[in-house]
C-alpha cells in the first residue's frame, strides 16, 4: 500500500508539472524553480509534512520534496544555531542528496562515454 500511495502522490506532482509545460508558456526551468519554492512555502505553513508522512518517497523525491528538505534543514539549524542557521541549514540538509547526484552523474559519464548531439 505504501508503494501505491507514493506512486499516486509522486505521479500527481509530475502530472501538474507536465500540464504546466504543455498548457503554459513557462519554461521547464521556471517550473522546476516554482516546484522547489512551492515545497518550501508548503512546509513553512505546515502543509507538506502530512503529505510526506502519507506518501513517503512519493512526496520527498520530486522537486517539491527538495524544497521541503531545504526548509526542514533551515528550521532545524535555526533551532540549534539561531540566526546563523538561516544560512547554513539548507546546505546541511541538502548536501547528501546533491553530493550523491554529482557522484552518480560522474560515474554514469565515465561508464557510458557521453557524446555531443550531432
From the spread of the alpha carbons, the general shape counts as globular
Uncertain spans = none
How helix-rich are the residues, as a percent range? over 70%
What distance separates the N and C termini?
45 Å
Could you explain how this protein is built, in words?
It is globular, with a radius of gyration of 17 Å. The chain has one domain (2-112). The chain has 6 helices and no strands. The chain has 118 residues and is mainly α.
What key phrases describe this protein's structure?
single chain, mainly alpha, 118 residues
Short description, anyone?
This protein has helices at 2-23, 28-44, 48-55, 57-60, 63-81, 85-112. With 118 residues, it is mainly α.
Write the layout of secondary structure elements.
Layout: H1 2-23, H2 28-44, H3 48-55, H4 57-60, H5 63-81, H6 85-112
Helix pairs in contact: 2-5, 5-6
Amino acid at each position: 500500500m505504501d508503494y501505491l500511495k507514493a506512486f499516486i502522490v509522486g505521479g500527481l506532482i509530475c502530472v501538474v508539472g507536465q500540464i504546466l509545460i504543455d498548457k503554459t508558456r513557462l519554461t521547464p526551468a521556471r517550473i522546476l524553480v516554482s516546484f522547489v519554492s512551492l515545497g518550501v512555502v508548503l512546509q513553512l505553513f505546515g502543509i507538506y509534512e502530512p503529505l510526506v508522512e502519507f506518501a513517503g518517497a512519493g512526496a520527498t523525491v520530486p522537486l517539491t520534496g527538495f524544497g521541503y528538505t531545504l526548509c526542514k534543514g533551515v528550521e532545524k539549524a535555526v533551532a540549534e544555531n539561531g540566526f546563523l542557521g538561516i544560512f547554513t541549514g539548507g546546505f546541511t540538509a541538502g548536501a547528501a542528496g546533491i553530493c550523491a547526484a554529482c557522484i552518480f552523474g560522474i560515474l554514469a559519464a565515465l561508464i557510458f562515454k557521453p557524446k555531443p548531439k550531432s
